[in-house]
Amino acid sequence: MLLTNRRHRLLFLSLAGMDVAVALPYLAILAALWRRSGETHAGQGYALLVEQPLAAFILLWAILILYMLAGDLLNRLGWRTPLRELAVAALILAGWTLAVRALLHSDRPLDDLAWLHAMLDSVFNFTRGVRGELIILLANFFLWWRVAGYSDRDLSFFGVGVSFRLGMLLALLGNGLLAHGVSQPQATAIVYLVIFFAFGLAAVALARIDQKAVGIAHSSGALLPWSQVVQLWLAIAAVLGLSGAAALLYTPATLRAALGVLGPVGRLIQWVLIQIIFVLFWLLTPLLEALARYLQGIAGEVQPQPIETPEAPPVYVGLDDVVREWSLLRYCLAAGAIALALFLIFVFFTRAQLRPRADEAEEHADEPVRFAPGSLRQGLDRLRDWLHLLTRHGAGQQLLDAISVENIYANLVRLARRRGYPRRPSQPPERFLPTLTLAFPGHDERLARITAAYLRIHYGEQPITAGELEQLRADYAAITAPPADPGEGRDDGKHDRSEGNDGEPPRAP
Q1: What does residue 269 show for φ and ψ, rounded to 5 degrees?
Q2: Does residue 55 form part of some domain?
Q3: Residues 121 and 180 in one domain
Q4: Domain of residue 278, residue span
Q5: Which of 407, 17, 473 is nearest to 202 (CA)?
Q6: Are residues 163 and 114 in the same domain?
Q7: pLDDT tens for residues 291-327?
Q8: In terms of domains, do 135 and 189 share one?
């Protein structure tokens, strides 16, 4: 999780922020229910979760990060059953006890242990209503459940995307209930939603970049230089800011003002529809009157039935009455819920038994991506080339094949430049071929085949077949494949770091 390379560390921190933002509105609703009991500390819990949402998020996020560090240490120690499960249970109990003592009973003397009885009573006598100790216990279980899930987490783009979509549904539901069920919580719900989308978008973006870096170029090390991490968060802030501005404009008053321009047309349509309905009723009136007379004749032949006195409905005993009257059942239910929560946490930790993620050396890019005019110019040049291909090959499979060939040759030129063999702007491809053979020795035939295909596509109107495209892709894979290391029998990623870890790994065409 956190004791790994920086790429995964940033991703786990974003996932933790997203999960905490999902849980906070539900905890705020429980705090509002707790406030109705009139307890001394209920107002403080309500003020933290409802009136100070940013402080509540920072507190729970920091606690979750501490729990993640504790989970990393347990994974690295390699303790076996039952020592591992006992350690997790002890950490859960210690976290709950310390949180209750610090948040609810900090004003008591150190030798006063009466608060321990209140803490246990809130769990086993849960029929008395929601209490602060129970809210802290639920929050503690949730945080450890997420830590257990992170221990065996799939960091693929698809897995993170599914979690983001599910979390979005839960966040919308929780903040909707908070906004309509609690007094003056609209600003709190908006803050929790903004926090969720900020960390959720960051997690999805980091997972996508991680998948591109690992799944395609087999690179390892740093995900992005810190300047590009800042650019990512600036882009997320811009997206959320534009969304907020659109939400301010898209209001009922704005819609009424826009639709008011079409008021005369609407009134005309309304008058036409009323006239059509009036004509239809005028035409159908004789038929409806005949049908009414027929139904009255049938109803007159029906004999009246005697009215029977209904029996008194049976009295049912509710489940809450049974739980309130039977103390043993309350204790069994509370103990069963705690046992089930511990079992789920233990299952997740057992699945991740001794599966620490490999530490990878961090390398920073020599040429970080910037929002510079040159990048915009390159994008415009690329768009112009695609338009030329569209005019020559038309829209269809031939256009996609032509773009693939363009990408293959562009990647080779980029890799050659990184190896110290750049192509001059005015140098044609056939004259750059000898330089390519110096950059990639031993692949003369493959390089000649790719160059010839590029000349056909870029300067002529001759399409290539599917078999030729597959051959070109195989040639590209053979040219850019990392060299084997027979001495060690493994790929240490040196080739990838020298060619594909400078901010943009070689892209698959």
Answers
A1: -65, -40
A2: yes
A3: yes
A4: 262-296
A5: 17
A6: yes
A7: 888 887 776 655 666 666 666 665 555 666 666 666 7
A8: yes
Same domain, yes or no, for 178 and 269? no
Res. 333 pLDDT band, cuts 50 70 90: confident
Does residue 321 sit within a domain?
Answer: no
Q: How many CA atoms lie within 13 A of 38 on its CB side?
A: 0
Q: Are residue 335 and residue 455 in the same domain, yes or no? A: no
Q: What is the pLDDT of residue 361?
A: 42
Residue 122 has pLDDT above 80, yes or no: no
Cis peptide before 252 (omega within 30 of 0): no
Q: Name the residue among 91, 207, 203, 208 with its Cα closest to residue 148.
A: 91
Two structure tokens written together for 312? 């008194």
pLDDT above 80 for 285? yes
The torsion region of residue 300 among left (phi > 0), alpha (psi -120 to 50) and beta comes to alpha
Instruction: Decide: pTM greater than 0.90.
Output: no
Tell me the pLDDT band of 394, cut-offs 50, 70 and 90: low
* One domain for residues 338 and 470: no
- Which residues does 150 contact at the CB level (< 8 Å), separation at least 6? 1, 12, 15, 16, 68, 71
Using CA atoms, how far apart are residues 179 and 173, in angstroms rounded to an integer? 10
What are 178's two structure tokens? 């908070």
Domains in the chain, number: 3
**Where does 217-354 have alpha helices with state H?**
226-249, 252-260, 263-300, 319-325, 327-351
Distance CA 154, CA 168 (A): 19
Q: How confident is the model at residue 505 (pLDDT cuts 50, 70, 90)?
A: very low
Contact 252, 242 (CB under 8 A): no
Is residue 362 included in any domain, yes or no? Answer: no
Are residues 413 and 332 part of one domain? no
Residues 32 and 163 in one domain: yes
Give the span between the Cα atoms of 454 and 476, in whole angstroms.
13
SS (H, E, C) 442-465: CCHHHHHHHHHHHHHHHHCCCCCC
Q: Answer whether residue 218 is part of any domain.
A: yes
Q: Which two tokens stand for residue 17?
A: 């922020």
DSSP state of 128: G
